[in-house]
């Protein structure tokens, strides 16, 4: 199962629901004020919409930076997710979709050209900035309908 959260230049996908599923991001923030002050726990700006089935998920982050090219994304998604969360910086391009789905079909029906390049250009496992927050490979992402949190370590409440 694939869960997607997107915002113009960013995408998140995951393959499992963790033990944090019953704990909200608000509860995580309330239980860890010292991590927020130190910057070890960060909240992304609330600019994302949920399109997938799962509205609550978490896992270790794998980062990918691409621009109008989806080859590396497809390569990652062909691997076993093993509970990881793929965080993609798409460079802010609105000229093409780097992930498929209903928005792509709608855009094509409306006469938009939305085909991504197939050159395989991009960077794997690099720090990226999404919604004003720097996210690094190996950090943990926690998402629910209240928001998205990124932590340097796995959290428990």
TrEMBL record:
SUPFAM superfamilies: RraA-like (SSF89562). It comes from the Eukaryota. Pfam families: RraA-like (PF03737). InterPro entries: RraA/RraA-like, RraA/RraA-like_sf. Substrate binds at residues 100-103. This is 4-hydroxy-4-methyl-2-oxoglutarate aldolase 2. It comes from Sesamum latifolium. The lineage of its organism: Eukaryota, Viridiplantae, Streptophyta, Embryophyta, Tracheophyta.
């Amino acid at each position: 199962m694939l869960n997607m959260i997107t915002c113009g230049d960013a995408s998140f996908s995951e393959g499992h629901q963790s033990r944090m599923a019953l704990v909200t991001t608000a509860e995580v923030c309330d239980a860890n004020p010292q991590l927020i002050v130190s910057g070890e726990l960060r909240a992304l700006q609330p600019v994302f919409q949920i399109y997938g089935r799962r509205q609550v998920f978490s896992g270790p982050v794998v980062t990918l930076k691409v621009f109008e090219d989806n080859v590396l994304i497809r390569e990652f998604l062909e691997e076993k997710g093993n509970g990881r969360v793929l965080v993609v910086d798409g460079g802010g391009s609105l000229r093409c979709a780097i992930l498929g789905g209903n928005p792509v079909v709608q855009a094509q029906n409306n006469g938009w050209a939305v085909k991504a390049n197939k050159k395989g250009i991009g960077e794997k496992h690099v720090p990226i900035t999404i919604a004003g927050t720097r996210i690094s490979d190996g950090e943990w992402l926690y998402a629910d309908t209240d928001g998205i949190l990124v932590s340097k370590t796995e959290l428990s409440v």
